Amino acid sequence: MIEQTAIFSDLRNASVLITGGGSGIGAALTEGFARQGSRVAFIDIAVEASRELVDRLAGDVDHTPLFIEADLSDLGQLRNACAKADEAHGAVTVLVSNAALDDRHELLEMSEDYWDANQAINLRPAAFAAQAVAPGMIEAGQGAIINFTSTSYMLNIGTMPSYTAAKAGIVGLTKGLAGRLGPHGIRVNAIAPGWVMTERQKRLWVTEDGLADMLGRQCLKEPIQPHDMVGPCLFLASSAARMITAQVLIADGGMM
User: Fold this and answer.
1) pLDDT by residue (tens digit) across 117-158?
2) Sign for the pseudo-dihedral over CA of 106, 148, 220, 218
3) What structural domains does the chain harbor?
4) Annotated catalytic, 163?
């Protein structure tokens, strides 16, 4: 259970859509918004984990989150999922584009098809999810979009060039959307997590030495957990951040 250290009253009953909301950071975000009393819909392809999350929260929050199975690399499925969220909870006024796939890959072996498929997961859905929900936000005269980027693109990491290019692109997209949608009262910001200890990270890439090196570079000497991303996201989604837009909030324990 995620402990709520702050309550944002304007998020109660808000229609929230989260991509990649079934596991890792996304599951923490889904739970965090649900515990604010938001009406949360989340998109994922991880069916088992997503259903377990819904079952765990059912009866423990005011509005049980709605799981929508969809492949975000298929724009037709993405648009249909956004429409289902609108239909279930009213026009989405908070969009959190969290879904990503940070597989490691070698530049000298990277194919055109790999590049395109990687961008179709890590960058393109953020643009087209925003496009899908923007009309409802414009009609409402307000809204918040939070895009998840990563500190990885700032660190000259050489083992995932397509991913880091996409995460840099998220920042450019965020600023462009902020400029386009700001006149309608819609704020667009990004969060750049550090190395968050999700189950996937721990299974695939976390080593004792690697974690010790990262903690040595952080000002705050604790591993970053998925729930550490919830507070920053709730803040940016709420009216407490009403004059904050086109910004990147780095949440990395002070490593940068």
Assistant:
1) 999 999 999 999 999 999 999 999 999 999 999 999 999 999
2) positive
3) 9-251 (3.40.50.720)
4) yes
